[in-house]
Amino acid sequence: MKPLLAPSDPLLPLLLSSSAAFSLRDSAVGRALSAPMLSFTFSSALSNANLLPLAHPSYDLCSRVLPFSVCLGLLAASSPLSSPSPTTGALRPMLAAFAVGAAGTALGSLAAFALCVRTSLLPAASAAAAASLYCATYIGGSVNFFGVAAATGAARLDGLLPSLLAADLGLMALYLLALTAASHSPRLRAAFPADGARPRAAPSAPPPLPLSAPRAAAAGGIVALSVGAAAAGRWLCERFPAAAAALRLLGAPSLFLCCLFLGGMGASAKLSEMAAAGPAAATFGAIVLMVHCVVMLVGVRVFNHFGAEISLQTMLVASNANIGGPGTAVAMASAMGWTQLLPAAATCGTVGYSTATLLGVAMHDFLLRVVRVMRL
């Protein structure tokens, strides 16, 4: 169905929805969901109401603001009046959590393949392709979905790719909303060690659709930008403390840019597309996510039992890096005020982005051999 607004119009509604979310940052709903997640929800609602197109160049334009949001947020956090946000030691625990999440995704893909073949929900060849595609996208992000599709020829399977992609985006949106709720869970806070970081203004969570070239480029440069911004902030605090005190004012524009970034993503996360994709694709993706979640929770608890000290914040951002990719992981850490996790979030997301396609192709080859041996 053609959107009710012309393709040249999306930027204005995105700016308005982002502004509305930003203005609600101190309200009850803003504190519960966060302004960036509200922006994502507003734009997704407009898209599902057929008021915005599913894809548009303006969404890529919105994705370009993420590095600026991160830099401003780091500078604001380095103000002498801001809460300290140490970065030392954040990478190793997050890499451990990220590896646990990746293992959970791989196990979930195998479990979904076995169930769908056993129940005849999907033909064996289609189930093998679906397992490889979901394994890749839920380890490194949606850009890997297309890398595996191109490498395995999954596009030749009638109707499989559109249905899997629609279910992927819809489920990702729901999962990343769940991550926001998890950050407030008293039970999870009690089960995992505290990170020592306090959310600055309001919390958030995220999601993307296929990372286009601008989104991938933005994610790739965030590590260097975050390190540079943090170093510049520390230098100002040491040399010019009076001027550095004003840096806290940069928190507001940082939050607004994060709202705009997630607003562009929300416009592309159309849940109605997931509903139209059919039960097979949605069931497959849901199984992968459930197993990922269970393995992440159990695995991190085991790691912590042996002294890893992976905090709840670290685990949630690592899971975000698995499911959404580097852009959403960085956006979540920035909007939640977990600035000490920004470099680690970008690094883990980039590791997944660079390896997930190979892992997905390897799984596809393995499952095809299983299909041939078992004559499924």
UniProtKB/TrEMBL annotation:
InterPro entries: DUF819. The chain crosses the membrane at residues 95-115, 121-147, 159-178, 216-237, 249-269, 281-303, 315-338, 344-368. Keywords: Membrane, Transmembrane, Transmembrane helix. This is Uncharacterized protein. The lineage of its organism: Eukaryota, Haptista, Haptophyta, Prymnesiophyceae, Prymnesiales.
